[in-house]
């Protein structure tokens, strides 16, 4: 249940269209439902504005399906991250409206229209093509949460003219997600060009001394450009979620 469904339920009780007993039945699974292996947080959209997101990596298909079943009963929109294609195929057989974004490893089940909460554009930028899988996780997360999102891929500092040739896209953004591996310089360059928040996402793309993204992470944390925040290595979901929170303010 989200905040809008809760308001509708309470308005129905107030007007006498819904019996109190029926309202209690709808509310009894709040704030969470204990499945033994998971406690499904039905209350989260009321507290935070967004339903709980399923992190699929490390979970069995049976556990993922069990969580989806309970969220589906509550008519929640469902987003799953780090999902395998094999898992998606099993879900699709039971929930035909399930969609899969293969590059970003995202599963989506849209049970009701997502209200457009964002007030401007979120732009997802990558340094290279190798960063796109992380960028796609950010893109589809932000889009699913009710934002207009644009892509600007393969415009890293090794060919900075590609970035500068797209300045208007950057200037039109309310929030920018900058995804880069290697030395991770892209967010600093973008931060020096724009007057909006830049969310830096280090990726594990790079050779040995990249230390699986640690070098990019440290570069971004030590950026001399103002207005940059940094999420964890390869955390496209966290960047997309944060960008959505900023964009709806």
UniProtKB/TrEMBL annotation:
Q: Which InterPro entries match?
A: P2CMN_synthase_LarB, PurE_dom
Could you tell me the Gene Ontology terms of the biological process aspect for this record? 'de novo' IMP biosynthetic process
One GO molecular-function annotation for this sequence? hydrolase activity
Q: Give all residue intervals belonging to the PurE domain.
A: 120-249
Tell me which domain of life the UniProt entry assigns to the organism this sequence originates from: Bacteria
Q: Which PANTHER family match?
A: PHOSPHORIBOSYLAMINOIMIDAZOLE CARBOXYLASE-RELATED (PTHR43064), SLL1489 PROTEIN (PTHR43064:SF1)
Task: Report the NCBIfam families cross-referenced here.
Answer: LarB (NF033503)
What name appears for this protein in its UniProt entry?
PurE domain-containing protein
Q: What species is given as this protein's source?
A: Tepidibacter formicigenes DSM 15518
